[in-house]
Amino acid sequence: MTTKKITRGITKEFADEFKQSELNKLYEEHKDELFIGVRNNYLNLYYNCDSIAKINYKRGKVLCEIDKYYLEGNHYKGSDKIKKVDPSEIYNNYQTIKANSNSKATNEKKAQSKLVLLNNNNNNSRWFCFDIEWVKAFEDQRQKNEAKFNGRFDIIAISKEKPHDVALIELKYGSIAIGGKSGIYKHIEDFKKYKDKCYFNKQEIKDIIQSQKLLGIQQPDKLINLQTKEIKSYDFYVITLNNNSDKKNGSTPKQKMSGYLFNDKRWGCKRLSKKTVQTTFGDVTDKSNSLHVNFLFSTQTIDNLTINDIIEHSDYERE
Hints:
The protein is α+β, with helices and mostly antiparallel strands. Helices cover 31% and strands 24% of the residues. Strand 3 and strand 4 form a beta hairpin. The protein starts with 11 loop residues before the first helix and ends with a strand.
């Protein structure tokens, strides 16, 4: 049976077959540490916000692809890297897959996963995290090349109350990757491109949440029959966990980030970058600026993480 190409989501037939597979059994047994990402006619199974399986539906069967690293602990390149397996192989080798992911994943990815799961397991949270590791879907490679957009957003959340707000979130953990090619400047640049190119897609959000419903993923009651007209708008967020200095009298991540954001030494900044966000995009913390970003900081670490409302939690220092 040929499945219809959709914005981002899966068919009922796919969902029904998934629910009969050992992948669903695995998810039900470990939903406190797994996340199912809905893509364009396929699914990603995440542990540590690390895709441990790509799940397809072809000719009435659920099929999986997995990086051999997770099964063997060895890194491969090219065509030798990916192995096609039956869902039972993922289920039977989950502890090995989990151990190899734990060896590979950064603290940032582990914190990202924990933050999402804590939020979604809290019925009183104002938000529901419906996607992680979001990338823009293009019709083909040519369209992708022409767009020149390779942004990847760590978390996307939607508010439970109508009209629904959407939060596009980048997560930072400690001082690593504040600067450099994947640093705060790149994230702000991606936010700007996303906004200018009008990539916000309400139908995509509805498709994801409806597909999660088909899969039997627990959702807030107020989102079960979500309509696009009920989705209001979106805001950008950068959340920093482990906002602690690496050494005595050293800079905190917030102080370091300030040096890349602004042309003045605010937030206790000790050194300015030669290339700042403010020079290119203006002061993104100013609500009157054409691009506005919310910054949330917490000293909590993976070991003591209790933030269970991803945006509203009282532990955050807000800028």
